[in-house]
Design goal:
The complex is a heterodimer of chains A (91) and B (413). By secondary structure, chain A is α+β, with helices and mostly antiparallel strands. Chain A has helices spanning 28-38, 42-46; strands at 2-6, 20-24, 57-61, 64-65, 81-86. The chains are: A alpha+beta (91), B alpha/beta (413). The complex binds zinc ion (ZN).
Chain lengths: 91, 413
């Protein structure tokens, strides 16, 4: 299943400078695994040594924070957008 | 010249040069300014500070900007008010209120904005921008106007009218977003990657956050270069609490204090947005984001970027956290106004209500010297007290009518 992944500035070099790439998968975990296969280097940046998403990495599926859904097990469907966004501070 | 080494990641320790960047490229951890404390110790002194301006810029040696002050509306050096009447009501001893409602745009955000836009000018930015729950919007619009910068200020569309008007009046661009603060913040993170603007709480956030340390510097100076035993600070992103604690530690590091701070730090949140307090109460190491629902909109950040550091500070120092109801918030706004003559916005109500709770729970104690930080003015959130603060009587303009409403035999001297 093809979804769009939005890449933050900090990680664009891994994707040849692209701000968006296409990836395959039916959950956030499999999409991010697909991203790693297509563009090696993402995994060690997004996940800690224990295999958990780093605590300052935010992931959204169709504009919803996956921590309100099923985390990395959150399903994604054809055409949805997965956004990777660093945490930002208050105002 | 600022006495700065560079920037350092708070998560993994990687170092970076001074630049308008805010997250570690490796792990996304927040970056922090790394200072040359030996150089600061050699440059600064209590006498030099005392001879400085009555603003945050008296502590320029401990701030990360080179041209001091580049953007200055006079933020800081606000009153530290001895609050004996409030202390008596809460069963506390020596209590002080740091009254940051009297800054140029009536909140502590003038401190951080002054530092952020000074740094933005150094970097050569022409446009100032921010994501805001209101107070930062006020401060950025005003300081940008003063500095001759264009501004783009992004706010949730349902913000208090007072805060919208007090932003738009300065003539910049005010963009109201159909969504909550976290949605606004996300949009700004993406815009910051698109336009060469100085987002004070995004790409120049690392410098912006340092401005909060001045609340610690002033408190210590106003107490005769001593550190309180216990402070109570509101938590939105968690940055303010974290930086105030850091400020006290830095004073000792650079030789401005005689003794190492023995400071306990407590944090205040509203029940409708209490991700950090929830983690503390549940003894969890994970801060789970929430969807905010509280009248304390300036604290309504459901996904606090510095929440982990605020939680660490509370745990390490033996402080506490509470999550107070909107009803307690309004009661506390009225209590502070009635006892001390200070009219705080809803966030101040959260802080005073939390102080009350922590006093009842014995976490804040009567034998401690306590400082509570009140960070924004009540006129910004008037709606919260409409109906609770009304004329004592409405009468005809006659002596008889007055006597009827206030019988002479009931009147005291
Ligand atoms: Zn890092």
């Amino acid at each position: 299943m093809a979804v769009t992944v939005r890449i933050p500035t900090q990680l664009r070099e891994l994707a040849g400078g692209a701000s968006e790439v296409s990836a395959d998968g039916d959950t956030v975990a499999s999409v991010l695994a697909g991203l790693e296969t297509a563009h090696p280097g993402f995994k060690e940046r997004l996940f800690d040594d224990g295999g958990q998403l780093r605590r300052f990495v935010n992931v959204f599926v169709a504009d919803e924070d996956i921590r309100f859904l099923d985390g990395v097990d959150t399903p994604v469907t054809e055409g949805q957008t997965v956004s990777i966004v660093p945490a930002v501070a208050g105002g | 010249m600022a006495h700065v080494h560079g920037l350092r990641c708070r998560e993994c320790g990687r170092e970076y040069d001074i630049a308008p960047i805010f997250t570690c490229e490796w792990c996304f951890g927040p970056l922090e300014v790394a200072y040359d404390y030996e150089a600061i110790a050699a440059a600064t002194s209590r006498e030099k500070i005392a001879a400085g301006p009555l603003s945050i810029w008296r502590y320029a040696d401990l701030l990360p900007t080179d041209r001091n002050p580049a953007v200055d509306l006079g933020a800081g050096f606000t009153p530290l008010v001895r609050a004996d009447r409030l202390a008596a009501e809460l069963g506390l001893g020596e209590l002080w209120v740091k009254n940051d409602t009297v800054n140029p745009t009536n909140s502590f955000k003038d401190r951080v904005t002054s530092v952020a836009l000074s740094k933005a000018l150094e970097f050569g930015f022409k446009v100032a921008a921010c994501a805001s729950t209101g107070n930062l919007a006020n401060a950025v619009a005003a300081h940008a106007a003063h500095a001759g910068l264009r501004s783009f200020v992004f706010i949730p569309a349902d913000l208090e009218q007072g805060k919208v008007v007090a932003t738009a009046v300065y003539g910049g661009n005010v963009v109201a977003i159909d969504g909550n603060y976290d949605a606004v913040n996300r949009l700004c993170a993406e815009l910051a990657g698109t336009y060469p603007w100085a987002f004070v709480n995004v790409n120049v956030r690392t410098y912006y956050a340092e401005g909060s340390k001045t609340l610690a510097f002033e408190t210590a100076e106003q107490l005769g270069w001593e550190v309180p035993d216990h402070i109570v600070v509101p938590i939105a992103s968690g940055s303010l609490l974290t930086k105030i604690r850091k400020g006290f530690d830095e004073l000792f590091t650079v030789g401005l204090l005689d003794a190492e701070p023995q400071l306990r730090v407590s944090g205040a949140q509203a029940a409708g947005c209490s991700p950090v307090a929830t983690a503390w109460l549940e003894e969890s190491d994970t801060i789970k984001p929430v969807k905010p629902d509280t009248i304390a909109k300036s604290l309504a950040i459901g996904n606090p970027a510095d929440g982990y550091f605020a939680l660490d500070a509370v745990r390490q120092t033996g402080g506490g956290l509470a999550a107070v109801s909107d009803e307690e918030v309004v009661d506390a706004m009225l209590l502070l106004a009635r006892t001390e003559g200070i009219f705080a916005e809803t966030a101040g109500g959260v802080t005073i209500a939390t102080l009350k709770r922590l006093a009842q729970e014995g976490i804040v104690r009567p034998d401690e010297r306590v400082v509570v930080y009140v960070t924004g003015h009540g006129l910004k959130t008037l709606d919260a007290v409409v109906g609770r603060a009304e004329p004592t009587a409405v009468i005809a303009p006659t002596l008889d009518a007055f006597h009827e409403a206030f019988p002479p035999d009931t009147m005291q001297d």
